[in-house]
User: Fold these one by one.
Assistant:
Number 1:
Amino acid sequence: NTPDKKPQNMNYEQIKELKNSNLVTLGAHTQNHPILFNEDDNISKKEIDESINELSDILNEKTKFFVYPNGIPNIDFGQREMDILNDNNIKLAFSTKYNNFSKSDNRFAIPRFGFSKGIAFEINVKLLLGNYFSILKNMKNGDEIKERRSLMKLLN
């Protein structure tokens, strides 16, 4: 039995420091990290709108980018969320779909490779293999997307 891990959110000063570093561009990510696809219209809209507005206020500039919680297209977010982002004048939104970027990608579902954890070797392997990394990962761990789709069918 391990104690609950404390939230590791950034405070306002850290967000401003990161913005001023010019190392990254910040985007919104919802207020409470829900799976937006599972929420009703009002909750999904509120989560997105409030996160965009609060980040814009903190940065003193319009937020242009968004990253979906979990981020699997048609499982964690769908057309409804993309429409809400469009209404908020978001320029680009990023999914967690492992794939190389192409000009034909929907600007509200851009694929990306995540590097949130791992040792340098694993990060280098992800960069080297590109979209083939997820195929290998699913061979080892099972296909998460297929499992989640099966669960969604059971629940609907």
Number 2:
Amino acid sequence: MSDQKTFESKIVAAHKSEGFDVSSTKFHHSYLKRYKFTPKTVFDIGVCKGTPELYKSFPDSKIVLLDPLEETQAYYEDFSKQFNMEFIQCAIGSKKGQTCIHIPKNRLGSTSILERTEIYNPKVEINTRSVKVETLDNIIQERKSISPYGVKIDTEGYELEVLKGMCNSIKDVEFIIAEVSIKKRFVDSYEFSDIVSFLAKFDFELLDILSGFQHSPRFLDCLFARKDSFRFRLNMKHYPQ
């Protein structure tokens, strides 16, 4: 065994002795590709600095970025040189309208329509901004987006509202990747079970947990697919290959 392997083995053993499960992150294009999803259009809802592993997983798909912050468009300009992309500046929710978002200073990735609970308040200056809200159903209809769809949602506690706004289109959705809160990070947000039970009504079940493993996780990046999908029978044990 090489010195590098010996060192890695010792690190893994040390973590396991403290109760941690050490594994590679699965939110990676080489892993996602093994599920053999074939979306024609992928929606990245809540973009911030982008989700490059998602884009690399589906390089031949049309990728639609949906984010209420104009600052996000700078990242879009970079990614659009590599992928077939469109950027739409709006929040996504359960109904069309206007709302106020909360933007922690120097922390664009923590922007949310919801207020944070006291324990998860970043304790920094919060700026507010009025933004347009659309539903994914409306976006798909207006732009005549080609199905099947892949959907990634990271909206800081607003994930359930996003799902409620895609009920008409969900029959054409192949997979959903959502950052689902476990802890009460936001005021008036959902319970973890609310997301699971809502998607179950549309025959979606939890297929995999891609990332978020921590000693005391606040959220998990969850992959949902249709319960009759062959992907529930795949053996992903030997990743990476």
Number 3:
Amino acid sequence: LTAVYCFKKALLTLHAVALRFGGSESSSVPIPRTAHLPIFSDNVIPSLLVHLGVIDLTNADASLGLPELFPDAQDPARLSALLAAAEPLDPAAAKKDKEVPKEGPLLTVEQAYVLRAAAIDACELIVEAAKTLDTGDAGQDLSWLKAMGLPEIDAWIWAVAKDRPDYRKLDRFALGNPA
């Protein structure tokens, strides 16, 4: 087993500094390079990856109670609907209709860590797979997939989780009170 470290806020802060000041020629402080950083895993990305079938909890460690956390996640009809193209939105209605995402299951610190680590690993695998794709066969230019890094996939998942109405309604886990 390889250790997976989850430092969302620290890594996100480094990346924010790099984005804000990375193009500046006159910075008096060194600007970190962040392309190699893992995703900034919290509750949103792992929850969405479970709902989209990327992280499958059916065979996860039952002693941690992981398989029961998102009981609807493996429903084929639901998964098919979530993976279908998003319905076009009226921008005015989209702004008005945004509701607070539904709080999902309350997890222990250990359960949350396992899901966050699984999301970090899954996104690493997604980026690796994207770099090996034949990007010329789809009838459109998909060469950008080969340049996609982990911070970019993190930002994309966050954006769709926030902006796509059916994804916004999906349960996201929350950390329960420690016993």
Number 4:
Amino acid sequence: MLILPKLTLVTGGAASGKSDYAERLIASSGLPKKYFATSQIWDDEMAEKVRAHRTSRAGDGWDTVETGTDLVAAIHATVPDEAVLIDCATMWLTAIIMADGDPADEVPRVLGALSQSPTPFVIVTNEVGQGIVPDTSMGRAFRNIQGRFNQAAARQADSVIAVMSGLPFALKGTLPKVSQ
């Protein structure tokens, strides 16, 4: 059994293997597995992605909670003897913005709730600033919001793991051995 740190951030590009690695990390803990799903379904492509994620966890002992934008309430409802995966911060931030919320208000609330909780958390997030510069002001603003969230979460995290091409490497802390 793997003892999870209080907060682990798993980051990388789109379709890099972040979620798969984060799920295996939680499973390796031997604790009851809770999944905070943050995605909102905006179109058919997202509906298929959510369906695939749900199918991959089906029958595997995951307790899935659709958090919507109220991630703080979900964090406060956790218990110490479970391991929680938040997948993903990028979709949560998108939902906040689409609901006309203010990430500058919500990010500190979420990070504060995480710091107060005795439950181990693994957060999946996207590195959106390593590609081309977005061609719209909204895209550039989102890239900056996501980058600031990632930096704040990484400062708070005990462990930061980057995943590229399905391969994890430690940016902060040590790379844990996880089950395949």
